[in-house]
Amino acid sequence: MVVVGIVAVCAVLLVLAFLVPRLSRHPERGTQRTLGAGSRMAGKAPGPLGRWLRKPFSTSSKAVGRSGAGGRKARGRMPF
């Protein structure tokens, strides 16, 4: 369920970054801030458990950043 949510957020950010590149940065940063907070809270678990719980949040944050950057990059390559 969470994976589907992250994929949906990435798809929305990709389309938003393609259509309005400047306005896409705020939702991207908000999503990354939310995922960063989850990562910080999960990282407080003791020992290796903290690293294991943190990994999905950091991976999702990377995916959000890449989808936004990919949309802006594709927009920059358009001939118009």
Describe the structure.
It is built from three helices and no strands. The chain is mainly α and 80 residues long. The chain is elongated.
Name its key features.
single chain, 80 residues, 82% helix
List the SSEs and their pairings.
Blueprint (H helix, E strand, L loop, with lengths): L1 H18 L5 H18 L5 H30 L3
Helix pairs in contact: 1-3, 2-3
Global structural class: mainly alpha
| Form type | elongated
Tell me the number of strands. 0
For the record, give the distance between the C-alpha atoms at the N and C termini, rounded to a whole number.
Answer: 38 Å
The residue-averaged pLDDT reads: 93
**Spans of 5+ residues with little confidence (pLDDT < 50)?**
none
Radius of gyration: 14 Å
Which range best describes the helical content: under 10%, 10-25%, 25-40%, 40-55%, 55-70% or over 70%? over 70%
β-sheet strand percentage: under 5%
**Biggest sheet: strands, sense, closure?**
none
Along the chain, the helix and strand elements come as HHH
Tally of individual helices: 3
Concise overview:
This protein has helices at 2-19, 25-42, 48-77.
